[in-house]
Design brief:
Chain lengths: 212, 212, 212
Amino acid sequence: MLYAVDLLGTFVFALSGAFQANRHGLDFLGFMVLAVATGVGGGMIRDVLLGATPPAALQDEWYLLVCLAGGMAVFWAAPPIARRWNRVLVADAVGLGVFAAMGAARAAAAGLGPIGIVLMAALTATGGGVVRDLLVREVPAVIKGGFYATAALLGGVAFTGTAALGLGEAVAMTTAAVVTTGLRFWAMAHNISLPTGRRFPHLPGDDTGDPA
Amino acid sequence: MLYAVDLLGTFVFALSGAFQANRHGLDFLGFMVLAVATGVGGGMIRDVLLGATPPAALQDEWYLLVCLAGGMAVFWAAPPIARRWNRVLVADAVGLGVFAAMGAARAAAAGLGPIGIVLMAALTATGGGVVRDLLVREVPAVIKGGFYATAALLGGVAFTGTAALGLGEAVAMTTAAVVTTGLRFWAMAHNISLPTGRRFPHLPGDDTGDPA
Amino acid sequence: MLYAVDLLGTFVFALSGAFQANRHGLDFLGFMVLAVATGVGGGMIRDVLLGATPPAALQDEWYLLVCLAGGMAVFWAAPPIARRWNRVLVADAVGLGVFAAMGAARAAAAGLGPIGIVLMAALTATGGGVVRDLLVREVPAVIKGGFYATAALLGGVAFTGTAALGLGEAVAMTTAAVVTTGLRFWAMAHNISLPTGRRFPHLPGDDTGDPA
């Protein structure tokens, strides 16, 4: 059941990667690269950081197959998929919840503390999209605004809270997925976003961190 | 022999990184960074994904030395190298084949299935170029068109096919390298590229994957 | 003591990430993402390459907390921090030295040779800034010019030289940190930078490495 929803989420994320390839006029290979990167990128980054190598997405070939299927679907049938976009968005929100729950569970199993767990929930859910956007030279959608990563972060918080109550991993994962998906639906319905800081364009900052 | 060709491929890839630094007007350090990233980036990403850390390119210092030599060659002698560009292209195609063959062999040794092997062949051969292009804020050449990564992918397919026949790793690697390099020569001679999808610029897609 | 300076460096790097978020008009989440990526990104890349997973920054939650504190400080109080920018620069140079020294020491402990040690010193010190700049689609400051990474590289050289004399890790790390921070102060005072190569804009290079 979890596995089926995880594959569904991977497929929907791959669709999003392939539509990005479409917008940028890439060739067939570009569709496949962005579909794979978006579908399994977040989980791969998580597994590499946690030392679980080779990543699950390389050990079980269904993940890659599902990504390729998503990429081909958009390559050959973009308009009919686009007409059903509301259904894609629902599946995407469900996938987001499952990804966040799995990221949190893997991080907890690797012994990370609460902040690390929350970070891994968000990274699993959004890392693929970040890779997708970087490859076509866009600022990652996830840091530009909206409520997407925030839903995954709060799902991670729900996981740590539930786990701290001693309710077991299955309950914690379910809670995390329901919270993430629910928040995402709520944010889509109400067009919620986070506040931005006041901008101070002339402030320094170029000369640290690695100001060169 | 394999080792010598691998170092040659690394050197030629480093040249390509340094020419990218040249085009962007970077300083000496920028030449070295792009030479190293292009020369050993693909193999490093592969080794990290397969859990073979520290990567081979960090354990055997000849790889880094060869990259630095390539970067310095372009920094101080770009025009004579550019005049011999056809020879560089031949060496690059040979390096591409060796990189694809080694990526496929390492992936097979790590227990990956056929799709994972093909993916690792292409990633080893093209990952360095992707890092190179991202660092100077270009859309990676490999997803913009052409037949470069496709040659490596088909080399990976040749590896899995040969290995499935039980012919042993040495034969499979040779086949993969010959197929990749041969396809690359053929594509350069005939200016081959993959089809692009029809573009639907007003389709959705920004709002999934991590639409933010 | 080393731990305290390491956390200070992480905090200052996080400030730099958050100012980058400010310049790009990102929301609260964007501030946090760039603060975390800049503060712990370099060390995470190093730990992943060396196979020390999960990275130290995920095992000890103080690193992430310090990053979040730095991000929030800039989100709510950018102008007073900017007015004290000279102090931030001093702390940043100290952090740079500590990061370089720790990168060199970890690389040596993992059995890398002298070039690998120097590379890891620079990567630890500048990797976070590279990730920060890539996320907002800027060419990494570190390869655009200046003397920032070069100070860390020379700190790595100082580490390998001192270690080769058999003076022990503590002396080598101290030397590396002092050399890096000292060079950074000197470069800031004299506005030093490396030479750039002559540009040959019409040279080839697009068609290798992964010319696509």
